[in-house]
Amino acid sequence: MPEPDSVARWELAAGGKSKRALAPTANEQEVIQLFDELRSRLMRYLLAFGLPAQDGEEVIQEVFLALFQHLQRGRSRQNLRGWIFRVAHNLGLKRRLARARETSGVLASRDALAIQSDPAENPEQRLLSNQRYQRLQSVLRALPEQDQWCLTLRAEGLRYRDIAEVLDMSLASVSASLGRSLARFSRVDVNHGC
Amino acid sequence: MLHPDDHLSDQDLVLAADGELTPRRDAEVRAHLSACWQCRARMRRMEGAIADFVQLHSATLDPQLPPAAGPRALLKARLSENARQSDAPRRLVLAQVAFALTLAGVAIALVLHFVPRSATASVPRPQLTPGAVRPVLKADVCAVSGNQVLVVPVALQQRVFEEYGIRNPRSDAYEVDYLITPELGGASDIRNLWPQPYSSTVWNARVKDALEQRLHQMVCDGQLDLATAQHDIATNWIAAYKKYFNSNRPRQN
């Protein structure tokens, strides 16, 4: 739970506390509920895109404001979680493209992110773990981007049908992608004689 | 049906691990796995790969997650602002509807006030205008033309309007008319006067004028006695019109 000061700073960013003293509407409550449920999952997905955390945060704000408008217009409530990931994916791609233009194509990639070591491990175990993670990261980096997205979405709990919808793929392509990727991961230790 | 020598594909193993197979295919895959050590070992490796990826995913990304409370507060404030903004057009529309309804109400009130009522207003109220006659003979009646215009004094007209609850009447909307016309012996008495609408109904003042002329003509021609003419026009002039013109609708002049 962050300190109250950090909350106040974000409220300041929104232009101070809302002037509207009315109770939140049902749509506002629903959006906040979905934010609470999905925000960490969405943020991990966007970080895996290579977006900086600040950009990911802005994308998530846009996603939930769009969701609010979606609900306010009385549009479909079917599979809102799938809808949220799809919008986040599309906005994330746009943001990444814009960021790449700004930074001449240099973006933080997932493999550049630091791996936190388990403090319970001894130095030898930590070394072996790090070496294994490096190999896993190499496998991940070598995957086509769409396969990485499939894996990440699956890791965030989406079912195949939702992944197919988010990435605009067929169900068969999703299962083929996951099968291919996991088969490569499963051979990491075999290829290194473990 | 899977043949024991046909091994499962990576895709089948992942689908089985994720519970995404159809029940029939799932049963086939499970049956094969129970018989085939090679596929069961691959299945274990596949599940291990899933665990590895999940661990890698969390280990690299979880430490990067910023706290949620600040963005949550920002989102709440923005939603509140958006809801307020989306309320504003709705409030404007409601205000416009209320204004339109008020205008419509005023217009209806004006119409009801100034424009004569329909069929019920085409005949006088018997309580207010039962009809009143002068003591005249047929000869007196027939000594004057049936087209003679007898103007009702303004003060008397005003009293008639007041009696009928009509305020500020338009001069072209009503004729303060004699129920029993003076040509048939009607009196200049408030009990024989009523505000008759000109234009709002089929049975208007001009139609009644035609009836009065017809009755005067008939009385003077000896086709109808004066008392009957006075009685019929006072009781229900529309019924009298239908009777003496032998028509259910006013005739076109």
**CATH topology-level name of the largest domain in chain A:** Rna Polymerase Sigma Factor, Chain: A
* Helix percentage range of chain A: 55-70%
Using the 3D structure, state the CATH architecture of the largest domain in chain A. Answer: Orthogonal Bundle
Task: Return the domain count of chain A.
Answer: 2
* Euclidean distance between termini CA atoms of chain B: 97 Å
User: Based on CA inertia axes, which overall geometry of chain A fits?
Assistant: globular
Strand content of chain B: under 5%
* Average pLDDT over all residues of chain B: 81
- Helical/strand content category of chain B: mainly alpha
**Alpha carbon gyration radius of chain B:** 47 Å
Principal-axes shape call of chain B: rod-shaped
* Largest pleated sheet of chain B: 2 strands, antiparallel
Give an overview of the whole structure.
- The complex is a heterodimer of chains A (194) and B (253).
- With 194 residues, chain A is mainly alpha-helical.
- In chain A, 70% of the residues lie in helices and 0% in strands.
- Chain A folds into two domains: 24-106, Orthogonal Bundle (Rna Polymerase Sigma Factor, Chain: A), CATH 1.10.1740; 120-194, Arc Repressor Mutant, subunit A (Orthogonal Bundle).
- The longest helix of chain A is centred in the N-terminal third of the chain and has 23 residues, at 26-48.
- Chain B is mainly α and 253 residues long.
- In chain B, 56% of the residues lie in helices and 4% in strands.
- Chain B has nine helices and two strands, in the order H-H-H-H-H-H-E-E-H-H-H.
- Chain B has helices at 10-17, 23-35, 37-61, 69-114, 138-142, 154-163, 205-220, 226-235, 237-245; strands at residues 174-178, 193-197.
- The interface between A and B is large, with 65 and 47 residues.
